[in-house]
Amino acid sequence: MSSDTLTPRVSDDVTSSGAARQIRIMICDDHAMVRGGIRRLLQAEEDFAVVAEAASADTAVAGVGESAPDVVVMDVRMPGASGIEACREIRARFPATRVLMLTSFDDDDTRRASIVAGASAYILKQIRGDGLVDGIREVAAGNSLFGAQALAT
Amino acid sequence: MAALTSDGFFAHAAQLADALPDGIVVVDPDGTAVAINSRLLTMTGYAETELVGSSIDRLVPVDRRALHAARRAEFIAHPQVRPMGSALDIVCLRSDGTLFPADISLSPITLDGESFVVATVHDVTERRAVEDARRDAEERFRLLVESASSLAIFDLDPEGRVSSWNDGAQRLKGYDRNEIVGKHYSVFYTPEDVATDKPQRLLAEAARRGRVEEFGTRVRKDGSRFQATVSITASTDSDGHVRGFTKIVRDNSAALQARDELERLHLVEQRVHIGRDLHDGAIQAMFAVGMGLQALASDIDDAAATERLQQFVVALDDTITELRGFIIGLSNDLTPIQVRAEMERLMEGLRSRTGMRATLNVEPTTLAALGTNSRNLLLVVREAVSNVERHSRASVCTASLQPGTDHSVELIVQDDGRGFDPTRFSAGLGLNNARSRAVEMGATYLVASSPGGTTVTLRIPTPDRV
Fold first, then answer.
1. Scanning every residue of chain B, which has its alpha carbon at the shortest distance from the alpha carbon of A32?
2. Which residues does chain B have within 8 Å of residue A37's beta carbon, measured at their own beta carbons?
3. Which of the listed ranges B182-196, B226-240, B277-291 does the model predict with the highest average pLDDT?
4. Across the strands, what pairs with B450?
């Protein structure tokens, strides 16, 4: 994938927004079009600020260090290191940053792996609907979308 | 010795009742126990005060109480002496929560103008255990006989000609005793083996070492081949001269079939994995295009064009959902238990992603009645649940499967959401896909939606009465 080496990019237009505290978001997905689409979707929300993007797990970890997002929207499957690995790394090094996994399939193994890696949510890829937007707000508020039952295991 | 009249005898009803080996409980039409004997107390572990005056439900497992009440009403309407639920496996609940199997007979009686039911409870735990043990023994014996009769056992003379022949040999190789005795045993080998003189070599080795074993291909009378485990044992006289050979041949085809079955399962598993990888790419791409279209739609000022773009996005979303469902479709051989587990997983996903109260009311036995259609049913449920998640904004969702009348079962997926306009989604693949599944099953498919919620009803005919 040609965009694989994309370096984290810190947007300058939103970092110093004055009003109410915005939720700082980083998007990590190997597809540029997905990142663009998600960015457009999230920018429509006033309380959201997309502060960085990454096209691979490695650049995501580095990017979190630079832009200190509140929430990372992380694709599960990417070439190279997976989103799960990136999530584990981010949670270990930057505990204040929460990770929301974005996935194509609702399968038990990935769900479990995401929980173990410290993700706060696991959301199915779906173009329309409020799942992602609502999910980000929940996660930023410190809630987990896995439910008490999932966390207990 | 004082003569005891029948009337006098029954005047001691209480003593008599307590002397009986069975538990007895007298129940009034409301289901309240009015009298019990001591045997019933030892059987159930209750004290008399706990049962007398209480509902008979105390002795009925919780999940059967509703049914029990219905049957009781039925009995009171049409009282007659009969065994209770002769077709059912009756179990009684003890005070400590454990269950025991029982035979129960019911007799209506009238005392002082009031109707009661006398239930005689016979604990059949022991009888069941004996029956189970007998069934196990029978099964073991059957397996033994079957495995023995699948062995071909026959003798050869020192030159290798067949000299005796058993039923197993006839079954395995296809030759009658008359036609094979006297023939050289090389007819059982493939031409390739005969060309390399294998039959004679095996005999020579058996003669030298006493016994040889081999795994190889053998030929039946009709020319078909099978995989066999063969042992040849030489019998010798007191001088050490070979008097003949005994050959035991086992057809390993069954074992091989089991191995093939295992390989097939592995293949299915692999197929699912490969499918998942492939579809992941496709879903990624569609998700990306969809996101792009969505962004484009918000840039365009033309309302009609925006509407069209949104329709494309909906269609893409539905296709993504369908691809997800297709992964399940890849494994054709789901058992009712697996289908139910998959449905439970769908509901769990709904619960954990939306916080919706999602319940599943599906028994594997009901699913089993559907045969191969249970997979189609799963796909319909998957789609319905996915629609509930995406469109309904409901707080409660129930999926239940109930036996219906006239050899059918009825699936109902219900939510209390905002409903939707079915025509708005006609362009999407989802509902049409469910419809085509319904047609495939010969089922009727009905969607009723209003702002108070949506109900999807699927009525599926079951195959012939089992």
1. B288
2. 287-288, 290-292, 294-295
3. B182-196
4. B453
With an 8 Å Cβ cutoff, are A77 and B284 in contact?
Answer: yes
CB atoms A36 and B295 under 8 Å: yes
Tokens standing for residue B347? 């509901």
What does the pLDDT read at residue A105?
Answer: 74
Cβ neighbours for B29, distance < 8 A, ≥ 6 positions apart: B76, B115, B116, B117
- Pair B222, B198: CB distance under 8 Å: no
pLDDT digits (tens, 9 = 90+) for B286-303: 888 888 888 788 788 898
Instruction: Write a three-state SS string for chain A.
Output: CHHHHCCCCCCCCCCCCCCCCCEEEEEECCCHHHHHHHHHHHHCCCCEEEEEEECCHHHHHHHHHHHCCCEEEEECCCCCCCHHHHHHHHHHHCCCCEEEEEECCCCHHHHHHHHHCCCCEEEECCCCCCHHHHHHHHHHCCCCCCHHHHHHC
Shortest Cα distance, chain A CAs vs residue B396, angstroms: 16
CA distance A61 to A54: 9
Out of B225-229, B243-247, B369-373, B449-453, pick the least confident: B369-373
Tell me if chain B has a CB within 8 Å of the CB of A44: yes
Interface contact A38-B291, CB threshold 8 A: yes
pLDDT value of residue A99 = 96
Nearest CA in chain B to A105: B324
Among candidate residues A114, A105, A123, the one with its CA nearest the CA of residue A42: A123
pTM of the entire predicted model: 0.41
Q: Establish how many alpha carbons lie within 13 A of residue B429's alpha carbon, considering only the half-sphere containing its beta carbon.
A: 12
B305 strand-pairing partners? none
Query: Which chain B residues are Cβ-neighbours of A4 within 8 angstroms?
Result: none
Contact B288 A38 (CB under 8 A): no
Q: Residue B157: pLDDT above 60?
A: yes
ipTM of this model? 0.72
For the record, the structure tokens of B94 come out as 């003890």
